[in-house]
Write a structure and sequence with these properties.
two-stranded antiparallel sheet; mainly alpha; 158 residues; 8% strand; 6 helices
Length: 158
């Protein structure tokens, strides 16, 4: 069996695709940076949270900063790479608000500095047009791969 398609989505999910990793990033972006806050706000078991925090720190998504000498205590802050994940969280939240909140009551509303409720959108950096499935054209960059899967070698009966 051939390897799966090389993919940045798969690599990203390998790092942050687990529930508690994303919830830690949510909490840090909201300002909850201390371990006890993260345990309470995410509902993660302490051992699981410890492992997720270590992985996020080791990957450079969070940094561990000491805030108390006695007792020695740390908080977790997003690095530049961690802050770049915030739009992903906002988009996930908006999708969940639209598709998973049966009564229409959203657990949180975010207000932009302009004073309006934030509705996240993905837009093209060059033209500013909103991006959707119909205005994208994929161009696989991994050797041996096409849009639909692995390229078939000549003479291969697949």
């Amino acid at each position: 069996m051939k390897d799966a398609r090389p993919c940045s989505i798969a690599a990203t999910l390998a790092l942050v695709g687990e529930k508690y990793s994303l919830l830690v990033l949510r909490e840090v972006s909201l300002g909850a940076t201390r371990f006890d806050q993260l345990v309470r706000n995410t509902g993660a078991p302490r051992d699981v949270l410890t492992a997720r925090l270590k992985r996020l720190v080791d990957a450079g998504v969070l940094e561990k900063v000491q805030y108390s000498e006695r007792p020695r205590r740390y908080e977790y802050r997003a690095t530049a790479a961690g802050r770049e994940l915030e739009p992903v969280l906002l988009t996930l939240m908006a999708w969940g608000d639209r598709h998973l909140q049966e009564d229409g009551a959203r657990p949180m509303v975010l207000e932009h500095t302009c004073g309006h409720e934030l509705v996240p959108q993905v837009v093209c950096r060059e033209c500013g047009e909103q991006v959707d499935h119909h205005n994208l054209t994929p161009h696989p960059q991994s050797p041996g791969w096409t849009v639909t899967g692995p390229a078939v070698a000549q003479g291969d009966p697949r």
